[in-house]
Amino acid sequence: MVTPAPATVLLGSLAGWLSRVADPPAPTVCGAPGGPPVTAPRVTLRDGRHLAYCESGVPREQAKFKVVFSHGFTGSREDSVRATQSRVSSKWLAAASRGSLSPRIGPPKPNPIALLCAAMELLCKAPVLSCGARRSAAAAGSSMGPLAGAVGRWIHRAAVKPPPPPRICGTPGGPPVTAPRVRLSDGRHLAYAESGARKEEARYKVVFSHGFTGSRLDDIRASPEVAEELGVYMVGFDRAGYGESDPNPNRSVKSAALDVEELADALGLGPKFYVIGISLGCHAVWGALKYIPERIAGAAMMAPVVNHWWPSFPADLAAEVYNKQEVGDQWALRVSHHAPGILHWWMDQSWLPTSTVVAGTTPLPNKRDANIRNMIKADGTFEKKKELATQQGIHESYYRDMMVMFGKWEFDPMSLPKPPCPVHIWQGDEDGLVPVVLQRYIASKLSWVNYHELSETGHFLSPVPGLGDTVLRTLFSQS
């Protein structure tokens, strides 16, 4: 994979930044104030430094062979090759440890440029080497992915400040609690919003998982008439860290599924209920099919976001699709997967390539999608939704979403066994955010998924006229 020109500039910029902030502490020089005492003989070099040495063997003046010995890592002048004294015919002059510098010579500068350039190159190559279950022969057995993650953690510890703590709703200095909430077993709260038929009278009870940048107020926009006709009760909730739901620093695909289950139980939805997810919120639906399949009466996913590192994806296909994204989105996903500890810092740097999805600038091939986004940005809806979603902090909402969705999953969705309920996926063929070719591959691998591809349709499926009604009728028709 060839590093794009913007990324090349990035390497030098980031390396230069690190060279200014990552200096090690100055050495305590022997013989200098505050340094260790000088106890060994030393020679002064022409640059002013001193080397301490230790002699052994026959007297120097009588020696036939004269040898200089260079010790190893963690060694010192006292080391030698341990030849027996009876056979020694040489003069040993062991070099001093490399830290014995003259006080008038400044401490050596580290070389973070080489380190960081190597680190960024690793991150740049990591998607090609790590996407999919198969690897190229050259990359077989490669440790690029883990190494890139290790370097990211090093940068995190060395130079990156932690994100600011979240402003918890209902606490001093935090946003007010305005929505009904349930208390979970770990003490967190989930805020929710109900719609449709009265819960006590409903035939079908649905938990809705909103997408990236969304909230409990989102839904699939089914008509009130159809919801009443079918008897549908729907509850949307702010996923952990969004809106008025408490953050979960340990959030995962599994915790998202268990939040859905606890919400359903707290609201008394019964032993089985339906789940509908949209966009990135569909990770909670995949999690439900993995961890609580016996509780699910039916599942629907609308334009579900995919993870390029799911093992079942062919490496070539995943890499090809990945590389078609905007450079900023490639880097955002790359950091989310390989170095999540620095994601909050990365996304906060205006000079780095970052997510166009967060910025709302992703090229959208579908005309309806483009018009909708232009409209909500023009009337202020885009910013209002962001303010609501991130009011407790962008790290525990948007960025935690990215780390969970594009991080290392506990399972591969394409390896799930057939669940005891119908499962549907709706996908637009002009989706500019979720590659349709990967969705088709998922459907081809999972024979039990009912796949519905929508012609001339993009990513924003809720506004598609009549689709919300179709989703409900289709989902319940198989129940």
UniProtKB/TrEMBL annotation:
Keyword Signal belongs to the record: yes
Keywords: Signal
Classification via Pfam families: Abhydrolase_1 (PF00561)
Keyword Glycoprotein appears in the UniProt entry: no
Xref: InterPro entries: AB_hydrolase_1, AB_hydrolase_fold
Signal sequence extent: 1-22
AB hydrolase-1 domain sequence ranges: 206-461
The protein's name: AB hydrolase-1 domain-containing protein
Source organism of the structure: Lolium multiflorum
Organism lineage string: Eukaryota, Viridiplantae, Streptophyta, Embryophyta, Tracheophyta
